[in-house]
Amino acid sequence: MRPNLNSLVNLHSPLRLLLFSPKFSSASFFCNPAVASPIALRSATKSSVRTRAATTSRLLLRRCTCTAMSTAPPPPEAVVPVRDKIELTDVERKIFDRLLATLRHFNFSMELRVAGGWVRDKLLGKDCYDIDIAIDNMSGSDFVDKVKEYLESVNEVAQGVGVIARNPDQSKHLETARMRLFDQWIDFVNLRSEDYSENSRIPTMKFGTAEEDAYRRDLTINSLFYNINKSSVEDLTGRGIADLKSGRIVTPLPPKETFLDDPLRVLRAIRFGARFEFKIDEDLKEAARCEEVKNALAAKISKERVGTEIELMISGNQPVKAMSYITDLTLYPIVFCLPPNRQPEVADGCQTQSMVYLDAAWSLIHSIGYTSFTDQQRRHALYSALFLPYRNITYKDAKGKRMPVVNYIFRDSLKQKASDPDLVIKVHQSIDKFTTLIPSFTSKEETMPPEVDQEMEFADVPTTSKLRISTGFLLREVKDLWRIALLLSTMLHPSDLASSSMEDNGKPELDKMKDLFKVVEAAILELGLDNVWDMKPLINGKEIMSVLQLKSGGPLVKEWQQKILSWQLAHPTGTADECLEWMKETHCSKRAKIE
Predict the structure, then answer these.
(1) What is the pLDDT of residue 507?
(2) DSSP string covering 393-453, please?
């Protein structure tokens, strides 16, 4: 079915041309590797873009992101290298030795098992520092007390001992005890079995066998145990190893039952499927789309837990694939819940746009160079791209104040840290300003740069210095986010780099966008503007008031502060004395004209 794209928010005309062309189909848009990478989004605000839209449209959307809609035959079964046994590190061996010594010290007959992700990752040959110990006949908190008592008996110290309480209303059914051994956190829980009453989804917890516990896990690849007593891997569902080797995301029990037990498992399945690039089982997908499961995810799982999963996806190695699964499984409006009282109303197709922008940003980051951005810069770039379709949409907060919708998504839907929406909104607000400056950097002729800040005044400087002033003010506003803003502006800018088709010069559109980014980035660095936001005014407020013969500050002082910053940007080697002399001359000249 063709997606409803009639009212896409601010959809750029070349993209709209392609989507509504007679040859377009939803299958080709989402799935055909020959046409489907969204790496050349362009603004439709200028008439010059329309004249070359037919050429540009051939370059759009080169790579698939939503693989679930593919009409191509399924890929062959993956063969994932899995180790025959687990090799322990020295630290792991010391930890397990202390736990087994505790058993001997108190003459316990229990078995200790490492559960879940640690076993999976060790079999895949990956490092893992997330050790969860499952105990067969004692609670986690009771066992931690015994470990602490044993360590004290041999003059060793137990660190960070604590308990995380169960919270059935939020689908956290099990109490978890924690402690640090050899500078590594370890969680302790008891093996469990669960009984459900007829009219309740909150289970009655009781001690269970290792097999019962394995079947209550989220995925078969996470249901494996490492028996510390026997130094061996246990596959009690009978398919954990097989699914790991074939690269399959499957639940041990029927997926709907597993998801209703803990709806967060839907997002965990998506995250692991994307992270390992494993195939998600079709029955699992069908259960994830079920309204009962989606309602449970919205009602039973805290926003903090949802936000944590999204954060792990965005910061992971396959963010586009993860978000594509969320969109394909119709979970997008559940995860990224929007507020009421929106202006303008969110149009159909915003989810599609989000994926297009995210894929474009991810592709461009890799083309420019993954290490050119820090982890936090990549993270903010991807969030900024994902929520780009919402940048001009606002809502009324509890105090009746109009706020960007992005603020609500971060603070209320995902419960992310308070700085995240501020940074993403700042990037969004700077994109248009950055886009207007790009022609001044790419033009071979000397052009007058626009004043990107309405409060900014150009000092009496040559045209060549005005680009440095305009760019300097913008970078002082966006600070160290400027490369992210440039990245998104490069995606949206109607550059002449897109005016020629691949057939004309053989250069892929992604390379052109990378070239544009590099050209502007190099020019900004050549102007010496990196870290310009740390530049201190050469003349302070008191000195300004003295020259102007004012007794108190006000709008006039603020106006002169802007002028002084303009002078400093135009004269990067200028001194305080030179700036003060310029200010006196300018002020006297202006006063003389008035008189």
Answers:
(1) 55
(2) -EEE-TTS-EEEHHHHIIIIIS---THHHHHHHHHHHHHHHHHHHHHHHH-SS------SS
DSSP string, 44-67: -SSHHHHHTHHHHHTTS-BS-S-G
In sequence order, the 6+-apart residues with CB closer than 8 A to the CB of 288 are: 255, 259, 266, 269, 270, 294, 329, 331
Query: Do residues 564 and 544 make contact, with C-beta atoms less than 8 angstroms apart?
Result: yes
pLDDT tens for each residue of 273-307: 999 999 999 999 999 999 999 999 999 999 999 99
Read off the tokens for 550: 């004012």
Q: Which residues contact 56 (CB under 8 A, 6 or more apart)?
A: 14, 40, 42, 49, 498, 499
Which tokens in the block code for residue 18? 């392609």
**Residue 297 identity (one-letter amino acid):** L
Lowest mean pLDDT among 342-356, 363-377, 466-480, 540-554: 540-554
The pTM of this model reads 0.81
Helix (H, G, I), strand (E, B) or coil at 204: strand
| CA distance linking residue 245 with residue 149, whole number of Å | 41
Residues 110 and 113: their CA atoms lie apart, in Å, by 10
β-bridge mates for residue 232, sequence order: 227
| Model pLDDT for residues 580-594, shown as the tens digit of each residue | 999 888 877 666 555
64's tokens: 């698939």
**Which residues lie closer than 8 Å to 266 by C-beta, 6 or more apart?**
259, 288, 293, 297, 329, 331
